Structure prediction request, 621 residues.
Amino acid sequence: MSAIDVDLAVNGFITGLFYALMAIGLSLIFGILKIVNFAHGEFYMVGAYAYTLVALAFGVPVWVALPIAFLVGALVGWATERTLMRPLYAGYTSWGLMRDEYAVIVTFGLSLFLINLVDKVIGPYAYRGPPLVETSRVVLGPVLISGHRLLAAGIAIAVILVTAALIKWSFWGQQIRAVSQNRLGASLAGIDTAKASAIVFMLSGGLAAFAGALLSPVINASPDVGIFPAVKSYIIVVLGGMGSVPGAIVASLLLGVIESFGAVYLSYQYRDAFGLILLMLFLLFRPQGLFGEKGREV
Amino acid sequence: MTQASPAPAAGAQLTTTKTTVEFRAALVAMAIVALIPLGVSNPYWLGVLIVSMYFAILAGGWNLLAGYAGQFSLAPATFAMIGAYTTGLLGTYYNVPPLLGIAAAIVVSGLVGLVLGRAVLRLVGPYLALTTLSFAEIMRLVASNTIDITRGDLGLGVAGLPIGRLAWYYLFLAVLVVLLILFYLLLRSKAGLFLQAIRDDEVAARRAGVDVVFWKTAAFTLSAAASGLAGALYAHFAELVTPELGLIAQTGLILSMAVIGGMGTLAGPLVAAFLVYVLSEWLRDVGGYQLVVFAALVVIFARFFREGLWGLAKAAVRRWRQA
Prediction:
């Protein structure tokens, strides 16, 4: 392994950490409602703007702006769940639309709405978020990395570990997993499934917004900034297995590294296509992903 | 999902009548569209209406697949792009005349639809949406990155037709009406029932003897061919093809037309295509809020008025008759 390869691997791994922040939430939402949230990228976008604007316009220190971004994302996630997701599991009677179609339409519509609303209200300009530290480069052996990216990677690792631990061991985490396994069974056992769904959306919105905030000094906040991270997280949840949190984390790191090497050794122009091709191949031939259970009907 | 469906015989009767009413309403709407040039001669607004008809074909084709057969593809704009590039590339490199190019576009996009339809046969709901979305993005990336052949994002110049704007108007309208009649004949026949049976309950449809594989693939192929035809016509009208034809935002516009008009109705998406596109041109002039408005409308209609404008109109007529 040459020095360049080590550099590529480390940088791909770090990119994968940011992907994981997005993909965990998407996977949790799939687990609990069995839908794909096509507005997930806009949670990211909201976080990038919240962090950047709060820090730039009001002069709030970055260490305060970061949790604010998380809270704003959680709020948007909560509002989405309350207004649009409830019909997916409450009062489901006469339908002009089927369940899956409804989910695709409203989340897709919400995505277009938020992108264009921000475009009109804040403007189509890109804003660069302030970095957490000003150190421009840190040299670790063969690896060259900016101080912000290194620090952000550390924070991302901490957040991912805390989230995984919460889902695994906390009271609400256990309830969420119970609802994911069997909504009816969980509600019969006394679990408030509506509350579990709301918590999942708040957590997912917050995590995606946090990713947007952490990356805003590198990828400037703009109305459509969330599209690419969202597409990446779709690929990841398919690779990792829909609804599987460990699968999402492993697949995120894998995709980060694959893209990092692919862009250099295969084709730079098509670097964004590798993941999409993987997604299609997986859905067609191994829909349960690397870790998930069955994904398609026979 | 479906509740208390009526007996099969009554159901068949009901659907036939429903489709016929919608067909008549759509014909009336098309007749009005045919009369518009008598009062409007402004080439800009004629152009807007021509593009509306382009979208009406796309929304109608997508509605056949998503609204009637329940196959929620997110790639309708991609098939328009494939059709447009087919005739564009054939004309540029082999001097194929436009009419032959358009015919080739129908065949090529139909074939691609057939292959995609076969590939995704067993995928449902979110999996189908994700696969078709990736297909759409890959195709767009290919179109904008094979610069040697397609000139990438610069766009490929396409030969025009030696006809005026008014002739274009009636050409698009004629194609739209022919497709409308074809869709009507298809939906009125047993095929229409087969498609809706697959949408409502695939397993039950198969048990009842519906050839699910054949009809799902057929819906994909037909929908793709119609989109390809629209794209090829549009290419010769605009005299330019760019990868932007296949943008996800274009699919969003098509989807919003079908949802606002009423999915699974013959007339709704066609009429809504005109309303949405003309309104969007007007909103563009007064501040550019068109996409905000339509995205909000899509969410509101999906959440509260699932049968779309057609459903609202039907309810209004019923109330008026009772009063």
About this structure: The longest strand of chain A covers residues 138-140. Chain A has a mean pLDDT of 85. Chain A has one domain: 3-226. The CA atoms of residues 38 and 104 of chain A lie 7 Å apart.
